Amino acid sequence: MKSILLIGQSNMAGRGFIEDVSSIYNEHINMLRNGRWQMMAEPLNFDRHISGIGPAASFAQAWTEDHPGESIGVIPCAEGGSSIDEWAIDGLLTRHAISEATFAMETSELVGILWHQGESDSHGERYKTYEDKLLSLFKHFREELNTPDLPIMIGELGHYLGEVGFGKSAVEYKQINQVLSKVAHTEKNCCFVTSKGLTANPDGIHMDSISQRKFGLRYYEAFSKQKHVVDSLDIENEWIEKASKRELTKNERIFVESTKFALGQLNFEEFSIHISTINESK
Amino acid sequence: MKSILLIGQSNMAGRGFIEDVSSIYNEHINMLRNGRWQMMAEPLNFDRHISGIGPAASFAQAWTEDHPGESIGVIPCAEGGSSIDEWAIDGLLTRHAISEATFAMETSELVGILWHQGESDSHGERYKTYEDKLLSLFKHFREELNTPDLPIMIGELGHYLGEVGFGKSAVEYKQINQVLSKVAHTEKNCCFVTSKGLTANPDGIHMDSISQRKFGLRYYEAFSKQKHVVDSLDIENEWIEKASKRELTKNERIFVESTKFALGQLNFEEFSIHISTINESK
């Protein structure tokens, strides 16, 4: 199995409202839990109880479409509100993410990192020292994980920043975006992922669910083609529409019914009947 | 800060329905996320997307009542469906839990383990080898964490097992309970915690929310008095009633409002007004 490490702050973890998009259930997408793999369900990067939709699910879904029968795992290590200084190479977040990735690598091949961070550094001229810190971090991950050429996808901060709500304080997000773009264009095996056209929750800082689905597709475009994605993709709306109509496999349907039962939305008899029906179906 | 390690299977993680009990918000209770501490919110042991109420929150709440002004952290490492063999000393779950506890111990003093496991071993005469495996596991945790005398609270499996739903297959839960009791009574610094009178979700295997609140109180009684708890506590119902009426601190009220805002239940203006009102209150 291949795996992908998610690091950064809240927009990598995901804060899109769960109820705003169709759920992605896919028996070929896993998430790391207690060092092992479980079938993915969102919120998958549960750094906070308010975690929601991030870019990883649509990224992984798009990956499975290109790799029929194969599986992918996501390693959720993004941490809400974290600054680049909190991602220092000797900091807890970095050491913990390396630990999680190392557990994951016992049973998977790490093939990339998705990075999205910078809102917490979009003020007070922090952009001036951001590049060195980011390069040092990426170098450290590649060294510690023994993956010297590991591809790193670098997502741009939302263009909606600096305006309203919690996003208002991110007055220097354009400068951070310049650094992110520079690093993506100059550092080996790094690709830039634009946030052009993506929109925010009412808080003005967290990307909304639909935007996160699109962002994940762009991350995957960058990853799969190993190229910079500097514009929105033509397929985004169509893909989201199509994904919402994807027919679930038997295992996925059982997963959905088991979820309902575990949450008390079905009684045992109803649940048993539903499972029998699924098992007897083609 | 003191900390407590949660290990075992789903009833330690928690599967009680969230909506069935009053939420516990307490700025002196933390949970480990990405190697660091965050203010606790349930579900706190997010091994599955269906995770719910477990014993840890009422345990920690009771702890804070006895330690005014001090803080406690919980380290969630319980894994749904795990058997004692999956908690082998060289297994992923064990190594991961030790890793998480080690991160936590950088910033806290580990003062105990809460253990609840055995449903997955309540069939096929697995009880015959359970004792040795459990003793070996406890010894390993104490050694690896350099806490040779670490107290371990051992919760009994629910008396409702073996009857209905998913619990029906746990036909040998009484034998496992005998082993759990024996280990608790013979191994140093181990205490037994009865599940007498506690009830299940409709699945017949997962303890319901109210029962988990009571169970947490029993775990705390065992921990704080270093004694076996072999009967229900007189204070259980009264405590739950009182906890639901506990007045929140300013920080806790801000946490609640921030949660609502993050989930899209308040707009930014409403949120700002609520926060101002809280800040201006006594």
Description:
Two copies of one chain form a homodimer. Chain A has 282 residues and is an alpha/beta fold. The first copy, chain A, folds into two domains: 2-245, SGNH hydrolase (Rossmann fold); 247-282. In chain A, 40% of the residues lie in helices and 13% in strands. Chain A is built from nine helices and seven strands, in the order βαββαβαβαβαβαααα. In chain A, strands 3-2-4-1-5-6-7 form a seven-stranded mixed sheet, sandwiched between helices. The mean pLDDT of chain A is 97. Chains A, B: Pfam families: SASA (PF03629). Chains A, B: Residues 4-224 form the Sialate O-acetylesterase domain. Chains A, B: Keywords: Hydrolase.
- Helix count of chain A equals 9
Count interface residues per chain for the largest interface: A-B, 40 and 40 residues
Fill in the CATH topology of the largest domain in chain A: Rossmann fold
Using only C-alpha atoms, the radius of gyration of chain A works out to: 19 Å
| Full CATH superfamily name of the largest domain in chain A | SGNH hydrolase
Low-confidence stretches of chain A: none
How many domains comprise the coordinates of chain A?
2
Helical coverage of chain A, percent range: 25-40%
Q: Could you provide a short overview of the structure?
A:
The structure is a homodimer of 282-residue chains. With 282 residues, chain A is of the alpha/beta class. Chain A contains nine helices and seven strands.
